[in-house]
Design goal:
Layout lengths: L11 H11 L5 H4 L36 E4 L4 E7 L2 E3 L3 E2 L1 E4 L4 E2 L2 E4 L5 E3 L5 E4 L5 E9 L2 E16 L28 H7 L12 E5 L5 E4 L5 E6 L5 E8 L2 E8 L5 E3 L2 H10 L5 E8 L4 E15 L3 E13 L2 E9 L7 E2 L8 E7 L5 E7 L2 E2 L2 E2 L4 E5 L5 E6 L17 E2 L5 E3 L15 E3 L5 E2 L1 E2 L7 E7 L5 E8 L13 E8 L13 E11 L4 E7 L5 E9 L16 E8 L7 E2 L1 H4 L22 E6 L7 E8 L24 E8 L13 E2 L9 E7 L20 E4 L6 E4 L25 E4 L2 E4 L4
Length: 765
């Protein structure tokens, strides 16, 4: 697969700066430490190129393509970082012509985060910011030669990193909770932690609670809080992280240790230096007399960062009313320590039950501060322009100009990707409107003329549009149906094509708009499918599938409270579309055995997963889904799953994220174990995450990748400056830039494809 990051060698200072910021590497050199562990020698680590006048130049292993050669061939540079002190040495690349005469070549490196390579002198100095392999190229007289450079980083850190701000706010320390890192240990204890260990007798003596084995992590996400159960009185732990070309050992002391955050600088280096190999994490525990361990897990790393923002709902946030708890819509960007209020203009008001357009431009929510019959009155709703800081667009109350009731009109609706209209949610969900399935516009809530759905589908429950806007899915609850497709009284998941004259974009033409080709994707008389969400290519749907409805009196079949139990499932959208339970995401092994931890209050957390939303942008060879879960969060949130709390202690209702394979095989689970979404308010109940791209930037604005730009392309400014949004330049489209077909993408045929209108990896490797 081509290295897509290498596409802009000349702009590496800009790209590296953005990666460093996102990955918390700002103080990596000054504030981090790791010991120089002895890496096993690699087969090519000591290879020396020997010039033979009659040898054929074949371009392999440092021999040139053409008439020049580069030295040394395939070198390895070791970097040791011990409590923030970096130890390494420079190497010098040289080049010769076919007559074994040195030449004044110019040198470049395709991975600038590995260190600094001086173009004229060939001197490379590793920065310690990342590990892994890069390609050094020598250029002279129109000819080039290349070789592989390997940088290995070994880190030791005793106690917390220096000058690290853990963001100990609403999201908890490091955005993930816990008491923060343990203190430094003595030399004697450090030696004990490095000594011979006794394997744990059982998981009760020492066993992981969180994260889960085989989790896939994207780059740019905050490091997890390692959490374990134990019968030991642990006074010190050693955290060991290892992957190809990288090692970390962290030593931490304390009293009755049961969790430990992964060092943030080490975590960032591991994620950005990962080359597709597993990341292994070991924990050793010392109780003052014996060393027990390790307990071990192995993770996958996706070579891409998460895009966009998650907008979610909280019913007891302290961020909305100066410390008092009330409902609000909050926002989290990947890498943030704490959420922010999505609509500052609504601060102090109870505003919940939201929907967001996939392009991030429009947010709809219910707004109320009044009580009717001792219950909050959620009927009024409004829309907000997220491109203008959440400025209100329209208020929907009473009657629309077309005579339809505006009460709850956009509640749980399927918002079109550009936010200009929505397909209403028809009945049957808690706090629903009573309208039949139809489109209603954002300006004033009036009906938009359409064909193909009215008179066919009466109740389209929890509808959703695909990212392209060309398909819509919903629970087909009521209606005459069409052909051999009939309503399922809550037990059927259906899909239709949608055409509003949008062409290859998402901007619609003039009404009427057209629905067609009603087809059923799933039906089960014992279950209630709802809250569907398309993958970016619209070839798959992730949906909430109720196992046990809530115990309320009415409209509880697809609720998430009152004891409701649900799982997340996946189905393809074209035949054959074999629906499958997403075992790995839900918390089950492939043999249907729960692997998630349990206690008296949490006997079956694999059935407490709800309301998914898939990120519109594929990243690192995966799709990413955010969902609500009432599962235990390690040993941080262990109380009853339906406890709403009072804002003073962590509760179980939280947002989780999982990777989904691109183009899964029919009938196979495409999911991976989920991770807790860092940054969410720890002491609040969080739910209904909408993952959307951020509002786009016009030409000339700074950017990192094309998905941030209204015209879909992000390139270096003409004056040699940073990356800016621009019109489509000549040539192929790069990762995250706009495309229509696979052939538009750089790397087409080598693992890059056009997915959901953007060039994306088809797999992580």
């Amino acid at each position: 697969m081509p290295n897509l990051i290498s596409r802009r060698v000349a702009t590496w200072s800009v790209l590296a700066a953005s990666l460093v910021s996102a990955a918390l590497l700002v103080q990596a050199c000054a504030d981090e430490g790791l010991p120089a562990a002895a890496f096993p020698p690699e087969p090519d680590a000591s290879d020396a190129y020997t010039y033979e006048p009659d040898a054929a130049f074949n371009g392999d292993g440092g021999i040139a393509q053409g008439d020049i050669a580069i030295f040394p061939a395939n070198p390895t540079v070791d970097v040791a970082i011990d409590d923030g002190v970096i130890t390494t040495g420079p190497i010098t690349f040289t080049a010769q012509n076919a007559n074994n005469v040195g030449i004044a070549a110019s040198f470049t490196l395709d991975r600038g985060e590995l260190g600094n390579l001086v173009a004229a002198s060939g001197v490379f100095t590793a920065s310690g910011a990342s590990s892994g392999k890069g390609t050094v190229t020598a250029s002279f007289g129109g000819k080039t030669a290349s070789t592989t450079l390997t940088v290995r980083v070994a880190i030791t850190q005793n106690g917390p990193p220096k000058n690290y701000n853990g963001g100990n706010g609403a999201g908890g320390y490091g955005g993930v909770g816990g008491a923060g890192p343990g203190k430094a240990v003595s030399a004697t204890t450090k030696n004990k932690l490095l000594g011979a260990a006794t394997p744990p007798a059982n998981a009760q003596q020492l066993g992981f609670l969180y994260p889960y084995d085989k989790t896939v992590w994207p780059r740019g996400v905050l490091p997890p809080l390692l959490q374990w159960q134990t019968s030991l009185a642990i006074t010190a732990v050693r955290v060991h992280v290892e992957q190809a070309n990288f090692k970390f050992d962290g030593f931490y002391g304390g009293t009755a240790l049961v969790n430990q955050p992964v060092d943030p600088y080490a975590w960032s280096k591991a994620l950005y230096g990962n080359g597709g190999d597993p990341m292994k994490v070991d924990v050793y525990a010392y109780d003052g007399s014996k060393l027990v361990g390790p307990i071990s897990e192995s993770y996958g790393v996706a070579p891409g960062t998460l895009k966009g923002t998650v907008y979610y709902n909280s019913y007891n946030s302290k961020l909305n009313a100066n410390g008092a708890t009330t409902g609000a819509v909050l926002a989290i960007k990947p890498g943030a320590f704490s959420p922010t209020l999505a609509l500052p203009s609504q601060q102090g008001k109870c505003h919940v039950c939201h929907e967001v357009s996939a392009n991030g431009s429009t947010l709809f929510t219910q707004i109320s501060s009044s009580l009717v019959d001792n219950a909050i009155y959620y009927a009024p709703n409004a829309s907000f322009d997220m491109t203008k800081g959440g400025k209100q667009i329209a208020d929907y109350a009473g009657t629309a100009p077309d005579g339809s009731s505006n009460d709850r009109k956009f509640l749980w609706s399927g918002v079109y990707p550009d936010g200009t209209f929505a397909l209403v949610n028809s009945k049957h969900a808690r706090e629903n409107n009573k309208l039949a399935a139809a489109l209603y516009g954002r300006p004033d809530g009036s009906k938009i003329s359409s064909t193909g759905i009215e008179g066919v589908v009466t109740a389209a429950v929890t509808p959703t549009f695909s990212t392209s806007g060309k398909a819509v899915a919903f629970n087909f609850w009521e209606g005459p149906g069409a052909g051999n497709v009939t309503a399922g009284a809550g037990h059927s998941l259906a899909m239709m094509d949608f055409d509003c004259g949008q062409g290859n974009g998402i901007t619609c033409g003039a009404p009427p708009y057209h629905f067609s080709k009603l087809r059923e994707l799933y039906r089960d008389s014992a279950r209630f499918p709802a809250w569907p969400t398309f993958t970016p290519d619209a070839k798959g749907l992730v949906f909430h599938n109720t196992v046990t409805p809530g115990s309320c009196k009415v409209d509880c079949e697809i609720s998430t409270w009152f004891g409701a139990q649900a799982e997340l499932w996946y189905t393809g959208t074209t035949a054959p579309n074999t629906p499958v339970r997403m075992n790995a995401l839900n918390g089950l092994t492939s043999g249907n055995v729960p692997y998630v931890p349990s206690n008296v209050d949490h006997p079956s957390d694999a059935k407490l997963n709800y309301e998914p939303t898939v990120n519109p942008v594929a990243s690192g060879g995966y799709y990413w889904v955010v969902f609500t879960a009432r599962r235990m969060y390690g040993n941080i949130a262990t109380g009853a799953p339906y406890d709403n709390g009072d804002g003073t202690y962590p509760i179980a209702k939280k947002l989780w994220v999982a990777a989904i394979d691109v183009n899964p095989k029919p009938g196979q689970d495409p999911s991976h174990p989920a991770f807790y979404l860092p940054g969410q308010e720890l002491d609040a109940g969080n739910m209904r995450g909408f993952w959307v791209v951020d509002p786009c930037q016009p030409n000339g604005n700074s950017c990192q990748t094309g998905d941030e730009c209204c015209n879909g392309f992000c390139r270096q400014a003409g004056d040699g400056g940073g990356l800016v949004c621009t019109d489509q330049p000549p040539g192929c489209a790069e990762e995250f830039e706009n495309c229509t077909t696979d052939a538009d993408c750089c790397g087409s045929g080598a693992g890059i494809a056009c997915i959901g209108g953007r060039c994306s990896r088809m797999s992580p490797n």
